[in-house]
Amino acid sequence: MKNFKNFLFVALFFVAATVLGQTKITGIIVDNANQPLPGASILEKGTKNGTETDFDGNFSITTSKNSGVLVISYLGFRTKEISYNSSKTNLGTIKLLEDENSLEEVVIIGKGVIDLSGGRKTPVAVSTIKAAEIQKKVGTQDVTMTLVNTPSIYVAGQAGGFGDSRISVRGFDQTNTAFLLNGQPINGMEDGKMYWSNWSGVNDIASAVQIQRGLGASKLAISSVGGTMNFVTKTTDKTEGGYFYAGTANDSYLKTTLSYNTGVNENGWGTSVMLSHWQGNGYNNGTRGQGQTYFVSFGYKPNETHNFNFLITGAPQWHDQNFTKSISDYLQYGYKYNNNFGFYQGEYLTERRNFYHKPVINLNWDYTISDDTSLSTVLYASFGRGGGTGNRGRRVRTAEGLIDYDAIYANNAATGGDGNFGNSAYITRASMNLHSWYGAVSNLETKLTDNITWNIGADLRTYYGTHFRQVENFHGLTSWTEDRRLKDDDDNRTGATVDVTATQSGKANPWAATFNTMDEAQRIDYDNSERISYGGLFTQLEYSDDVVSAFFQGSVSNQWHQRFDRYDYPDTLEDSEKVSNFGYNVKAGIGLQVSESSNVYFNTGFYSRQPYHDNIFNNYDNSINPLSQNEKITGIELGYNYRSDKFSANVNLYSTTWKDRVDGATDVDPSTGVVTITRTFGQAQYHMGVEFDFIYDITNDLRLKGFTSIGDWTYAGELTQDVLDEDRNVIQAPTVVDVDGGKVGDAAQFTAGLGVDYKIMEGLSFDADFRFYDQLYARVSARKNNLQLPEYGILDSGVSYRLNLTSDKSKSLDFRVNVNNVLDRRYISELSTANFANAGSTTYRGIDVSNRGFFGLGRTWNASVRYNF
Fold it and tell me: Residue 68: how many CB atoms within 10 A of its CB?
């Protein structure tokens, strides 16, 4: 009995000691608007002891220590560390700030292959635009316009028509910025170009767009000279619901969208579907357009180990185009002038219509092998079909500068119905571009220790493209005949010709082009194909702790090119020799958390980038350019990031050196239709600059944001340059040109912006953004003296209102009105020539009116309503 009492006494002693040694910590987790965050994670630092907040944001956690640190995290918000001790057990209300660049909450599949800045802790220069912001502000614009309020970004070409914009990053054009869709590279395999009309549906299906300027976080063996833009699309939504959208805008624009998600059922299956239709007349004359977007996604999660998602999406469209023309033409005929269209017996006809359909199929698989190891793989395919129309033969214009189709039909009738390239007949031809593209990206990630993570993966692609011309509209003719000029095995014209007569036409319609192709015997002007294959391996090793993060990244790749010409060569010589090019890149960086609010980083990298296919075979034949070689790019970046409860800011300094560049610029004289191609070899560029952006939450209802970027982008040394005509005949022999110190054009080297978001009352908000551009030069080939355009500023604004239809806010109506270029500022957005004004020249704001280019869009508006259910 005595022993039992002693045992009971000892047991009670230890129980009391344990209870007295425990500390109960409580608090409430809220967002910046003081709304509770249910499900937020609270973890005792250095242990596995943790809990989550309840529906009202409350938490309670018991620790065995009298003091310590709690780590509080929530998807889409910045992680926060809070100290506690025995005298401070009620932490009160803890506010988490939204992480503007975090995408963890929207990336539910493909986490290992979608290269986002959060994929490693070492910082990069990054800006992220999420779905709510895209849907709110993009309106009728291309998705490129969602990034205009970020540093070192310039968007031009909107005046060309729906989907014809171009985006530059740090002064580098689209061919030198890498674009990814859910981890899938989407730059053109032949030339690196992006045609945004093919991706008009991204506005509807994007969960977020992230631009990583400079070296970025991408692990792929891709040539991100200017940066990397990641489009993260919707996948299969976890919860049931959807929305219906209807919008209208200036110039008879209409758009409707319907989206529905089944949610994930108890067996792990779910489906999301979205359909959209748009149409409009376009801001400028003769820039009509119409298109659809479809998106279907099937998700399946059989267990916690595997997650699958299959999606198919596409955006078939057609849009009529406007080309650059002289400032004098704009002053004579109006700022909306476009001379690419006309009328036949009162009916509208256009000479320049782009039509394309590019279905994309994507299968993602995430495999959680263990707590420390995971494998992500994406298999993809795309099938592009379509082209662009233009003139072939004798064009006739009216006194107003439009195409005189009545006269054209009369001239064609006078030929007896059989036209050819040598008489006065005229047809509308279509330059067709058909391709099939298959690829796979796979990445294995494993934690070697608590602080070291290793990635290794592969990037495989194969592409087959076919290019030819066909008759789109005979305009009363019954046939069209051309001489097919043959070449020998030395790529010289033999003098022999074969007549090619076309009697069939194909309409400029994306759906028709998807399912039909022209017989080889009916193809005119040219008919060739190419096979491009690509294989790459990449790896990354990262170390990170509470203070230091460092990474090393490397990749190697090989490309294989071959061209097949069915038009210019005898059958035995239609295949070119195969070209193989090896490339690589290395990147490394280090980041230091110098305080709870601040970190600094340094990144550097080197690329040996293979030339594009069109720079290898750049004579429209099977001859190989002897001057094509790997381009060498060196990048250095230094940055500082600051975060506090109210204010966040980023400062980035960069220097990029680019040598041995092969480039080409095509110019079309709008009055004559004459095409000239200027090629440059051995080009060197230096791009240096500083970027600054900030967000300041003045109150819970008022946010101020802004950015500034200052660049110095110049050419260096000498290069070799020649000029070709449309058939790639040399009309100016190769010459050595001094371009040292010349300014790089097509993007403003100084940009600044200021924006405000104000919550007027519950559900009602107002926002405005002002942007200023200066140091913008003409988009011409490298030269020592470039023409500077006048500076300009643009003000955009919008109002949003949400009407909740149910008490739980599960159903609502969203209203939105945007006005872009509120002040209706008239400005030159780009020039494709650089003619300096002389004494006696007629000028516009100091610019000789003989220069060709685009004026930016004037005041535009759009309004929409969206029903969420």
Answer: 18
